[in-house]
Protein 1
Amino acid sequence: MGLLDGKVAIVTGAGHGIGRGEALELAAEGAKVVVNDMGGSVTGEGADKRPAEEVAELLRSRGAEAVANYDDVADWKGAENLIQQAVEAFGRLDIVVNNAGIIRDKMIFSMTEDDFDSVVRVHLKGTFATTHHASVYWRNESKEGRQPRAAVVNTVSSAGLVGNLGQANYGSAKAAIAALTIVTSLDMARYGVRANAVAPGGVTRMSAGVIKDLEVKEADEYPDGEFARLNPGNSAPMVAWLASDEAMHVTGQVFRAVGASIAHYKPWSLGAEITTPKEPAKWKPENIGAAVNAHIFGSRNPGLQIGG
Ligand SMILES: NC(=O)c1ccc[n+]([C@@H]2O[C@H](COP(=O)([O-])OP(=O)(O)OC[C@H]3O[C@@H](n4cnc5c(N)ncnc54)[C@H](O)[C@@H]3O)[C@@H](O)[C@H]2O)c1
């Protein structure tokens, strides 16, 4: 018995890295899997059907039901086709794991318009496009009297939730995906759909550019049963649990799942507050500094920490 027996899942960007580990984990838990990957470079150039086909074949060789899909998740029609393919192949759709991504790191003054647009397009629009088309399907199911027990699991990063140097495009998109996760959880609650996000980790062709001198291996290339901290498959168990009915009470949440650790991200929330002494009144700019320093920052120095 697996946690996801009878469920049908899409994992985007599952030809390599984190997504490949997630496809393997979901299939091992009993899900039928649509392995999406358009097979471009780490910076988003080109296309190749082999990564998705190879992973679908790997899952089938392990006894799972799996099909490959090569659509660009950020293409509106492509995302629609991906959802349709899952329903046509397996008769239903229960899980969408939005993982596909690219990077083009540059300092903000060197980042081109195309660098910004391309990265935001794949991560943010790609997550929105698949979620939109899946939500149309799930809402229709609910209206026809077949209430879904469905889950979206999005992929975020500390680069967006905490901030990181040289990742204006990537960090902005990841922070926006955290917000999109909360909005999706609110929009879709009445239709039986949950939405959560995970910040994963592991050495992949994407992160190897940041963490130098580390060998890039796929999750299935690590020895079975042996724990390796940087295995890109380590985040996948959390994704499988969030996608399962065991997590029916969890929605609108953001987690980090890296190595052996799982942690909960607290959402943005209001902290200390100051109000003008005389109500109703408007703040005078020259009075704000002293009040902010005394009552909002106190003894804490909010100054910039580079590389911290
Ligand atoms: N590796 C890490 O440590 C780390 C940390 C935080 C977040 N992430 C996130 O995890 C996700 C996976 O990253 P990874 O490290 O496995 O990188 P990766 O390059 O190994 O895998 C990304 C996959 O997405 C596919 N892809 C890219 N654009 C696509 C598109 N438009 N449509 C369909 N497929 C597309 C690529 O072909 C590739 O196979 C990304 O969202 C990334 O931002 C990774």
Protein 2
Amino acid sequence: MRKLKLKDITVSSDSSIKNAMHLLDRGGLRLVFVIDEKKLLGIVSDSEIRKSILKGTSVSENVKNILNPNPVVLQEIQLNNQYETKMVIRKLIQKMPGSTHILLVDNQKNVKDLINISTLIKENQFPFKKNYQHNKRILVIGGAGFLGCILVPKLLKRGYKVRILDNLMYGSSHLSPILAHTNCELLEGDIRNISTLVLALSDVDAAINLAAIVGDPACKNDPESAIETNYLANKAVAETCKYFQVNRFIYASTCSVYGQMEGNDELNENSALNPVSLYAKSKIQSEEGILDLMDENFSPTILRMGTLYGYSPRMRFDLVANAMTKTAISEGKIHVHAGGKQWRPMLSVEDAAEAYIKCLEAPLEKIRGEIFNVGSEVQNYQILDIAQIIKKSFPKAQLIVEKESFDPRNYLVSFSKIQKILKFKTKHTIDSTTKQIVKAIKSGEIKNVNDAKYYNIVIDS
Ligand SMILES: NC(=O)c1ccc[n+]([C@@H]2O[C@H](COP(=O)([O-])OP(=O)(O)OC[C@H]3O[C@@H](n4cnc5c(N)ncnc54)[C@H](O)[C@@H]3O)[C@@H](O)[C@H]2O)c1
């Protein structure tokens, strides 16, 4: 590949916008630098040009009129400090995703060099890990979601430093209290972007991957994103962990990989998988892709969780128990789909988060390359049972059993492996968490239960 030269992407301050556009076309970056006598005056990117043309600016006008005078650049003094260098690169990639080069300047903004970001990363090797050995840094990918918002505060409370990587599909307003913690940082980005993965993973001690297009309806609605995120990007996450020797890697999978069981025996981690949705298939492919990468420096663990329920700052009312609680409050009705005889293991989001902590802190030999079902046999319910538990809290609510629809998902699961190896026990019940949800609604914390932000798409059971 041709080496990018600074002169190929530089214009002087007396150039026209049209001149800059020619260089943008030929230069290979999505920007040109405006430099006079080695002094950086600013940058002009394709977005600045587009905006100015839309405003009616003529392309014969001077670039000075549209340039951004404060682009992200690397100061010579920062180059000597690996941490600061990294922070600057992170800022550049956040502001201009896909950037490949950064300008090196002195404290007078005199241009010193044009640096290839990949070379910089390789040369630095990001050996910051050692600084954090006594206060480990955990990357929680998808940490802004329903489960992430319960797990992250628990990790912070235990003294970990936490970095959340999330593309904030469901907004970020619920994150403010979590981000107020000095040991928590947010990297807004998409796991489908390799540069983002490199920045997020290069200096962490362990990673937990919760990011996904979650649930059958959401995957059915956007199959391309589901395959990209749940399978391809997840594999890239694991590859990046392995590259940076992030040994402990915990992947969020689901008991829905068991799909439609044959017979009535509880299914364990070695049982045949029978997925009935793209969501479950993408999770199986990811599990396999991740476990294939295992070696002496990469020790993945797969957690197959039951269907979650309970309160979270990123509330979800599209999960079966939460949806029933919501309609009991808002409509005085509890809907049961597809007859309600289907078996579903249920797990409170609080207990789920504890399972991740157990895994994070377990001796490596106990969890390396292992798959664990997460839940408890006592919470293997038929959907109708769940409705009846919730009805106890809302005795006046009408139970409506819809028999017309069909739900092929039906699985009874064994949790003896996680109980035995990690001493994992569930503490929360549907009954106790229902009270917490009611409190959040009655207190006005949750103002409108039908707000789209509480749903990954349409109601899922
Ligand atoms: N909720 C359940 O019942 C349940 C059950 C079993 C397993 N799981 C698994 O647990 C994990 C967390 O589920 P949840 O209920 O918290 O879901 P959620 O949808 O609330 O959270 C997922 C998070 O991932 C983020 N995300 C999605 N695509 C991304 C991308 N391309 N790049 C960066 N971030 C991205 C979203 O913004 C969101 O914050 C998922 O992997 C899910 O498959 C959930």
